[in-house]
Amino acid sequence: MTRVLVVEDDAQIVRALVINLKARKYEVDAAPDGATALALAAARRPDVVLLDLGLPDMDGTEVIKGLRGWTPVPILVLSARQTSDEKVEALDAGADDYVTKPFGMDELLARLRAAVRRATPTGPVDGTAVVSTERFTVDLAARKVRLQDGRDVRLTPTEWHLLEVLVRNPGRLIGQKQLLQEVWGPSYGTETNYLRVYMAQLRRKLESDPSHPQHFVTEPGMGYRFEQ
């Protein structure tokens, strides 16, 4: 069973989430604050985290950073904060998705399922299983990335999925809408800030000079292309 950690201090929201998740056969743990959330995550090892940003003891972005220090678990932010800057801040800290309150339960559950799918290893790889550049090597079968100096690169499930879509299509321009739908799901198509944040993260981890990328190329207003 998939284990969900709900981090939320509003008792009514927690109750609604717990009822709906358990009805769909999820195992659920709940934390009312950031410190409890970090302790529960370490003890219970959830498969996905639903996180409110407005916690009583710390900002939710600090919880994201705390989790990202040791786990790639998918993190879905639930928040009443609606500005683009606040969404980008949460994504940049390591969140995988952002759901604005008030939210529909069906939409939230669909996004949760998509996050879990992104974190689940796929079946056998067709075609080339290893893609190499002068800077790094991507092993699609093992879901691993290694720099040419031998160091492993740690990616979150969302970073990996975005990388995988691009490296499976070397030299091909992948449109923004297609990338969003491939990585985040069919209900996405306009959240281009997600792509900007995650492409920046891939470049920081994999490019020799992230400000002048050689491998993850932007076609302004159109999409992205992977060049070997």
UniProtKB/TrEMBL annotation:
Residues 128-228 form the OmpR/PhoB-type domain. It comes from the Bacteria. InterPro entries: CheY-like_superfamily, OmpR/PhoB-type_DNA-bd, Sig_transdc_resp-reg_receiver, WalR-like, WH-like_DNA-bd_sf. Transmembrane segments: none annotated. Residues 128-228 bind DNA. The modification 4-aspartylphosphate is found at D52. Keywords: DNA-binding, Phosphoprotein. Residues 3-116 form the Response regulatory domain. This is Response regulator. It comes from Streptomyces meridianus.
